[in-house]
Amino acid sequence: MKSRTFLFTVMGLIGVEVASYVAWQHPTFGVFAWVLLVLLTYGLTLAQPELGVAVVMAELVLGGKGYLFVLPLGAEVSIRLGVFLAVLAAWSMHASRNRTFWGGQWRFRWLWLGFWLAAVWATVIGLAGGHGVGVVFNDVNAYFFLALVPTFGLLKTKAHFSTVLYVVAAATVVLALKTALVQGLFVHYPSTSLTMLYKWVRDTGVGEVTHIVGRLYRVFFQSHVYGIFALFTGVGLAVADRRRQWGWTAFAGLGAYVVVVSLSRSFWLGGVVAFGIGFLVLLGRRSFRRCLAAVALSSAIALLIAYVGFQWTLNFPGLWGGSSNSGSLVRSRTDYAGESAYSSRRELLPAMHRAILQHPLAGSGFGTPVTYLTKDPRVNVNGLRAGAPYTATAYELGYHAFALQFGLPLTLLVVGLLWWFLWQGVTMLRLQSSNRPIIAGLLCSALALCILHLTTPYLNHPLGLGMLMLIAAGLSIYDPRYAKR
User: Fold this and answer.
1) What count of other Cβ atoms lies within 10 Å of the Cβ of residue 323?
2) H-type helices in 204-291, by residue range?
3) Is 230 within 8 Å of 169 (Cβ atoms)?
4) Read out DSSP for 55-119?
5) What's the number of CA atoms in the CB half-sphere (13 Å) around residue 108?
6) What is the pTM of this model?
7) pLDDT at 341
8) Helix or strand or coil: residue 291?
């Protein structure tokens, strides 16, 4: 993609964000924008399938829960659902014409079949357990996104994948700009004057803005998880593509920036563990050590971009000496004493264990409620010493949710398939190829995603599943054996 095209893509996505704000205030315009975007997505996918996949990924990077635009038909129909249906309809045209289903996703079919099997099983068990159609649907809804797996199989060449990556990079630029804007405004202006901005961020399902102390706010978007993908894949691309080294390093830096600003301990955990394992592998194989300097340089610059960007956002227009400092925000996330999210997970853990052991083999299905006592002040408003009872059907502990809903055998199957998926990437790394840095970046992204799912669920959400599907497409294309088939 040429620089001018990339710039136009960034400007177009900024226009989408502006249109979303206007549509939020004027629903009639929102209906027009929703229909136009869905029709445009359908047309682009028919013309060039990779553009349809690119639209799916751009919506995930920017959309959070998927409600940047809505179509009011009794219930609100999200733009994510509209894009999903448009791409699926166009894919069916390509599939019937070419008489193919899986395409480039054939080699990873067992992973996707495992997820589908687990989701169907948990749906049946949940309905049989009398959990209610509505509650069960809320859980299985996210797994419908897996119907797009074959559309990612339409990415058959490096050019196709590069097109999608450039759009993801453009969306990451816009995500970083939006994050910086929201963070900067809340730090430098009274929150009472930013009510409309706050409501737009919340109502569109993009994320949340939480007061920490004084003038310090935490800005967390669900889509910040794509910062991990940008960081690792950007470094890999910078090492492999020397002509665009600094552009891909900037992509990695923006990814690191949104991960830092998110103040998500789960993102930090996944990123640090994946980086540590990747670094050890780099040192452990002699053939990889020649990339060590390039990886270290790109990583260092990316982290420097993240640090300087964070300081600039908090202390605009200078880097230091403003009304806030990054150290206070980071310390607020490393101090676990009395921290609501941490205490809530800790209190939920034994209750999840008891619930899992009630039906360890078959599972309890989607929509299973778990009741526990929590001291979270958002629930325990009366300050009860033992905590207030709270019933949850959505859980922060991702793999525990799998065990509760799927049962232990199916959970082990899914985890085993995820391990097999990662091992496929490791196998590719052992083969001689100029694309090994890219494969390593994709592999580290997948590893970080699997790790952070321990404490923040993404592998049961379109954001995480979409990232996994894109990584699978990339691994298939960059496999050194692919050209021989």
Assistant:
1) 12
2) 226-240, 245-262, 265-284
3) yes
4) HHHHHHHHHTTT-SSEEEESEEEEHHHHHHHHHHHHHHHHHHHHT-SSGGGGGGHHHHHHHHHHH
5) 31
6) 0.93
7) 62
8) helix
Q: Which two tokens stand for residue 93?
A: 């045209």
Which of 85, 269, 246 is closest to 169 using CA atoms? 246
Residue 271 has pLDDT above 90, yes or no: yes
Tokens of 186: 């809340």
List the structure tokens of 472: 């699978």
Distances (CA, A) of 47 to 9, 312, 469: 18, 42, 21
H or E, element range at 184? helix 158-188
Residue 26: other Cβ atoms inside 10 A: 12
Tokens encoding 462: 């379109």
Angle at 169 between CA 163 and CA 171, to 5 degrees: 105
Mean pLDDT of the region 297-324: 81
pLDDT of the residue at 36: 97
pLDDT at 32 over 80: yes
Q: What is the pLDDT of residue 95?
A: 85
Position 221: which residue type?
A: F
317 prior amide bond cis, ω within 30: yes
Residue 485 scores a pLDDT above 50: no
Instruction: State how far the Cα of 190 lies from the Cα of 63, in Å rounded to an integer.
Output: 26
How far is it, in rounded angstroms, from Cα 43 to Cα 52? 9
Measure the CA–CA gap between 38 and 48, rounded to whole angstroms. Answer: 15
